[in-house]
Amino acid sequence: MNLRRIANRALDVLLPPQCPLCNGVVDAHGVLCGGCWQQIDFLGDPRCSACGLPFEFDIDPTEAVLCGACVREHPPFTRARAVMVYGNVSRKLVLAFKHGDRTDTAPALGRWLARAGRALIEDADVIAPVPLHWTRLFARRYNQAALLAGVVGEVSAVAVVQDMLVRRKRTPPQGRMGWAKRRRNVAGAFKVNPARRDALLGKRVLLIDDVLTTGATVAGCAKVLLRGGAAAVDVLTLARVVRAAV
Predict the structure, then answer these.
(1) Fold for domain 77-240?
(2) Which of 21, 23, 18 is nearest to 36 (CA)?
């Protein structure tokens, strides 16, 4: 047994691991207790083959079926997948990770991503996170998408380029914005890091973010990556807002 493992066991005795949602004692740091786990609405098939919107009706899993929004305008990314619905309970988990310094949950959340996005990871040449503007990164001290990307890369052995994209302008918070305003808000906000163009050319990129709301942010990133020479872009997020299928 190495010293790190001994130290971790001693720490667990002094400070038992707690569920990040209810603070109940759990088996390992960053994992949910059984009660909180059951309150998470995990996503799977059937769903839109493009944006990943869950369908309320069964479809042939071998068929590529699009939701109404993707039929009208296919997003620039090929596929988007998410671990769970962004609801009351999952929102607390995501916000604690994103704004509450609960970085101890990153390993567990990253493994959730790796399981939910297995098909996307198998096709990926490189993984890249949605970047923060440097002023927000300085204030928050970490980029939650970058932490998740690092875990997914470690679990899958796919190369991670943390600075593939640069956020060149600080955009206003988008919480109360609709699709059109979000789209305008992120227009011109991202660029490919010139030092990483060789790592991008001809590659299928797996873009990682925490929450997919309208898809404007990941769509903006995907357009920049494709213009920069990427062969295709897939998107994997921890949670997604579920709108009505129209």
Answers:
(1) Rossmann fold (3.40.50)
(2) 21
Q: What pTM, to 2 d.p., does this model score?
A: 0.87
Strand order in the sheet with 159-160: 79-85, 232-240, 204-212, 126-129, 159-160
> And the tokens for 98?
């994103």
Q: pLDDT per residue over 120-165, tens digit each?
A: 999 999 999 999 988 888 888 999 999 999 999 999 999 999 999 9
Q: Which two tokens stand for residue 8?
A: 């971790």
Cα dihedral 218/67/240/114 (nearest 10): -80
CA angle 150, 223, 87 (to 5 degrees): 60
Stated as kind and residue range, the H or E segment containing 26 is none
Domain ranges (residues) in the chain: 1-35, 77-240
Which residues of the chain fall short of a pLDDT of 50?
1, 3-4, 6-8, 10-11, 245-246
DSSP letters, 159-207, are EE-TTSEEE-S-PPP-TT--HHHHHHHHTT-EEE-GGGHHHHTTPEEEE
